[in-house]
Each structure stands twice: as structure tokens, then as C-alpha cells.
Amino acid sequence: MAAVSLRKVEKTYPNGFKAVHGVDLDVRDGEFMVFVGPSGCAKSTLLRMVAGLESITGGELHIGGRVVNDIAPKGRGIAMVFQNYALYPHMTVYDNLAFGLKLAKTGKAELDRRVRHAAQLLEMEHLLERYPKQLSGGQAQRVAVGRAIVKKPEVFLFDEPLSNLDAKLRAAMRVRLTELHRSLRDAGQPATTIYVTHDQTEAMTMGERICVLKAGVIQQVDTPTALYDRPANAFVASFIGSPEMNIVPAQWRDGAVQLGGVTLPLPPQRFNAPAAGAVQFGLRPEHIGLAAKPGSIAVEATLKFCEHMGAEVFTYVDVGGVAFSARLPAEEAARITTLPRGAALTLHFHMPHAHLFAADDAGLSHLA
Ligand SMILES: Nc1ncnc2c1ncn2[C@@H]1O[C@H](COP(=O)(O)OP(=O)(O)OP(=O)(O)O)[C@@H](O)[C@H]1O
């Protein structure tokens, strides 16, 4: 069992800067957990504390039920893959994979078995005799992952491992790493994984659960679907989903939201009525359409511009002085993309998907 638990974990750097504020988190045995958040939110600091590369200045870290605050990295049963991995240029892929095992004086037969098993899992058996300079970026990154696999760690730690790859390779590696995690689990070697990224698409597609961080504080820990459907606050709502959720200042009164001269009654079952007053209204671009749906409200808008994305058209509009974006299927959008700027449109806000957030970003509590 190698669950990873953080109990009131804190990090104050020697210069006095507090980067991590009382983080409580349970990563389950065998789970794929993603830490996501903008630059500086302390996702790398947290991961490095789990790895033992950064001291913990408050709270407790448990791995597999043991408190490991004072245990050196090599005693923690972890393996880490970095963004800037360095392969040994003068060694073949085989020797790069075998290097750590040789240091650990692993027997020759066992070493060979583990190297070949890792190569098979990562579909790189044909690359074993190559040197790093003969590999593509994606292949080299696979070797870096392979070096972690041969260690048979109980916990895998990934720190933005795909950042240096181009978009297409990143997408392919996402699938490969997710499949790798599943196949290790199916083979009875569940590896608890913590994967750090600033990329919400990576988080959403890879994580079984996602921990969203902001300024060293956890905002929400949930499944991708729950984060998308029920974001805990406006920060999570705008960080998760692409393009971003429309979040606009509004007034809340008598079960309705008023913004830009428009009144939008909200389905009461979704919200505990907050005190009347200033709120933030949230609606994802995919929940604004040209056709009415059950629970939708017609809203008059003027067209600003359209962005053609192939199957979809991102459409930017003005609703009574408030900017909104809509994500429309290309077929449906065809009738508006030829309209001039400033043309009048009727859009349908799909209110069952609407959100309300507190007005001040400091509070950021979801009122649903
Ligand atoms: N050695 C250090 N001394 C002081 N402050 C530090 C140190 N290392 C990091 N920080 C600060 O701690 C905060 C968290 O940094 P960290 O690198 O963990 O963030 P991150 O979310 O991983 O960001 P990025 O995606 O840019 O790597 C930042 O404000 C950073 O400036």
C-alpha cells in the first residue's frame, strides 16, 4: 500500500516566503492524481516535498502509512520524472535504463528482465541499442519514464514531463502515460502517481482526480467531471475548461441574476439563495447556443467576431454591454458567421448549467 497523505503540510522558504499553506490531501493507493494551477501556485514545491528534495517546514507527510518527513529520497519508494530529464549521452538506451539498477547492484538477470519489461510497456524495445542523440524528443522522454519504471517505485512523481514536447507529441504521450498507469495496475503493480502540470487539458485528460492549487492553497480536489460541473469557486471555474467559462459581475435579487440590463431567472434547485447583492455569474461558452433547450433563456446579443476552429466556431458577442463567448458547432454557426460585426442575434443561455460565485475573489465560494 502506498497512499500519500499530507497533513497540514507547510513550506516556508529560508527567505521567509511561505509557499505552501496547511495542505491536507489524501492520494489513494494506485491513484493518478494531478496537481494543477498557474505558475507559482506551489505545485512543484509540493511535489518536491513528497520526493524529499525539499524540506517540509510544517505538518506531516505519510507515504504508505509511514511518516517520511525526515526520510531521504531514496528511502521513500518513489521515482521522479522531470521536465528537463538528462539521459547519459554516451550510453545506449538499454544502459540508460539499467544505470540505476547497476548502481543498486541488482543481479544481471533481474536487471535485464526489468529493462526489457519497461521497454515493452513503453513500446521501445526496438530502441534499446540506440544512443540518446539518435532519439526523437518523444522517444527520449519515454526513456526518462522507463528509468522510473525499472525502479519499480510505489509512487511515481511527474513534474511537467511533457512541457518540452510539441503539441502533437504531448497529446500522444498523454495517452501513453495514462495507459501505462492502467497497465501497471492491471498487472497488479499499482503505482500511486502524482503528476504536476499547469495545463488544464493534461489535468482533465489524465487525472483520476485533480487537485487545483492557487498560491499554495488547495482550491478543490475532485474528479475531472466534478470540477467541470461543480467548480468550488470562480478560480477553479475559470481555470478548468477551454475556452474559459464566462464569469461576469452581476446582481442577484429574488432568484434572478441581473447583468447588462438583462434579467436571468435561475433554476432554484441549483442554488442556495445568497443574500441579495453583488455576485459573479458563470456560464461556459458551450452552454450558450443558437437553439433553445429545456431551461434555456433567450438573450438579445450583438455579434463582435467569430473564430473558426474547424468543427466549432468560437463566437464573441455583447449582451447589454457585457462580453460573452459562445462555442457553437460549425454547422449551427454557419448562418451567423457571414453576418457583419454589430449584427443582432438571439442566443440561448442554458441556465441549468449556470453558476453563481461570490463577488469578491477573496471569498470565491460557490453558492450552488
Ligand atoms: N527557493 C525558493 N526560495 C523562495 N521562494 C521560492 C523558492 N522556490 C520557489 N519559491 C516560490 O514559491 C512559490 C511556488 O513555487 P513553485 O515553483 O512550487 O510553483 P509552481 O506552481 O511549480 O510554478 P511553475 O509552474 O512556474 O513551476 C513561487 O512563488 C516561487 O517564487
From TrEMBL:
<keyword id="KW-0472">Membrane</keyword>
<dbReference type="InterPro" id="IPR012340">
    <property type="entry name" value="NA-bd_OB-fold"/>
</dbReference>
<dbReference type="InterPro" id="IPR015855">
    <property type="entry name" value="ABC_transpr_MalK-like"/>
</dbReference>
<dbReference type="Pfam" id="PF00005">
    <property type="entry name" value="ABC_tran"/>
</dbReference>
<keyword id="KW-0997">Cell inner membrane</keyword>
<keyword id="KW-0067">ATP-binding</keyword>
<dbReference type="InterPro" id="IPR027417">
    <property type="entry name" value="P-loop_NTPase"/>
</dbReference>
<keyword id="KW-0813">Transport</keyword>
<dbReference type="InterPro" id="IPR003593">
    <property type="entry name" value="AAA+_ATPase"/>
</dbReference>
<dbReference type="InterPro" id="IPR008995">
    <property type="entry name" value="Mo/tungstate-bd_C_term_dom"/>
</dbReference>
<dbReference type="InterPro" id="IPR040582">
    <property type="entry name" value="OB_MalK-like"/>
</dbReference>
<dbReference type="InterPro" id="IPR003439">
    <property type="entry name" value="ABC_transporter-like_ATP-bd"/>
</dbReference>
<keyword id="KW-0547">Nucleotide-binding</keyword>
<dbReference type="InterPro" id="IPR047641">
    <property type="entry name" value="ABC_transpr_MalK/UgpC-like"/>
</dbReference>
<dbReference type="Pfam" id="PF17912">
    <property type="entry name" value="OB_MalK"/>
</dbReference>
<dbReference type="GO" id="GO:0005524">
    <property type="term" value="F:ATP binding"/>
</dbReference>
<keyword id="KW-1003">Cell membrane</keyword>
<dbReference type="InterPro" id="IPR017871">
    <property type="entry name" value="ABC_transporter-like_CS"/>
</dbReference>
<feature type="domain" description="ABC transporter">
    <location>
        <begin position="4"/>
        <end position="240"/>
    </location>
</feature>
<protein>
    <submittedName>
        <fullName>Sn-glycerol-3-phosphate ABC transporter ATP-binding protein UgpC</fullName>
    </submittedName>
</protein>
